[in-house]
Amino acid sequence: MKRGLPIALLMFAVLIAVTGCSKPVNQDTTGHDSGGHGSHGESAASGGPAKGGGTQPSGNGDHADNHSGHSGQDTAAADTTKAIWKLSADKPQPKSDVTVTVTIQDAQGRAVDKFDINHEKKMHLIIVSKDLSYFDHIHPEYKGEGRFEVTTQFPAAGDYKLIADYMPTGGAAATQTNWVTVSGNAAAPAAVVADQTLVKTVAGKEVTLAFDHLMAGMDTNMTFHITDQATKKPVTDLQPYLGAVGHVVILSADTEQYLHVHPTDEKAKGPDAKFMTKFPKSGVYKIWGQFQQNGQTFIVPFVVNVP
Ligand SMILES: [Cu+2]
C-alpha cells in the first residue's frame, strides 16, 4: 500500500504541472493564433499603386504614409507596411544635397527588416516632378532596422513625388509615396502631352516604341526597338541594366498610377527590348525606358494616350 502512494502522488503532481502551463494559450478562442491575422484589402488596379496613396505636398520632415496596392495575389505584407519619410533639410533647396531616409514598418510600427532583392536591389526610389518633366531612379542603401538612405539633389523649385518600391520578404511588391516641396520660385508645370510619333533619339540611339494592342485593363506587350542613330544599324550589344535587358517605369499623368513593368526576355541584348504591363485605366501615361550600352545608361521617355 504505502510504497505505491508516493509514486501516484508524484505522477499526479506532474500532471497538474503540465496542464497548468498550457492552459493560457488555449484560452485564446478568437480564432487567432499568435502568428495570424484577419482579412486584407486589395487594390483595384493590377501592377499599379492604389489610388489615394501618398500625401499632399505638405513641406517636409516626417511623413507616415500608408497605402498599398498591387495585384490580387497581394499578401499581408504589402497591405500593411508603411513608410516613415525623413529629409535631412526642412526646406530643401534646388541643386543641394538632401538625404532622404525611408523607414519601413509593419502595421504595429515595428521595423520590417527582411526585404527581397528585386531587380538587383532591395529598394528602388523613383523621383518625379509633379509635371513628370524630371525623372530619376536611384537606389537607397539599406542601413538595417527597416531604414533606407540615399542622398540626392532636386534640380529646381517645385513639388516632387518620391516613390519607394520594395518587397518585404514573404510579401508582394509594395509601393510607398511621399511628396516633397523644394523651395524657390517654381516654374509653371509643363503639360503632359502624348507624343505624336513614338520615335525618340537619345544618346546617339534612335528608339521606337510599339505596342501589340494599347488598351486599358488588358495585358499589353510593348517593344523598344533600338538602332544606332548614325548608321541606322540595329543595336545588338545592350548590357544588362539592373539585371535585365532594361528597366521601365510608367506613371499616369496625375502621378497616381505607378505601374510595375516586367521584361519578357531579361537576357535579350537588342535591338528589341520587350516588356509586359497593364494600364489600369485609360488616360495619359509617361513611360521611361532605361537601358545600358558601352557602360553608359540612357533613359528614353515617351508619353502615350491609352484608350
Ligand atoms: Cu531601381
Give your account of this protein's structure.
The chain has 307 residues and is mainly beta. The chain folds into 2 domains: 54-182, Immunoglobulin-like (Sandwich); 199-306, Immunoglobulin-like, CATH 2.60.40. It contains 2 helices and 19 strands. The chain has helices at 4-26, 76-80; strands at 63-65, 82-87, 98-105, 123-129, 135-138, 141-144, 147-152, 158-166, 174-182, 199-202, 205-211, 219-228, 238-239, 247-252, 258-259, 262-263, 272-278, 283-293, 296-306. Strands 1-2-3-7-6 form a 5-stranded antiparallel sheet, with no helix packed on it. It has a 5-stranded antiparallel sheet with strand order 10-11-12-17-16, with no helix packed on it. Strand 8 (158-166) and strand 9 (174-182) form a beta hairpin. The longest helix is centred in the N-terminal third of the chain and has 23 residues, at 4-26. Residues 14-76 have low confidence and may be disordered. The chain binds copper (II) ion. Residues 119, 121, 124, 137, 139, 242 line the site of copper (II) ion.
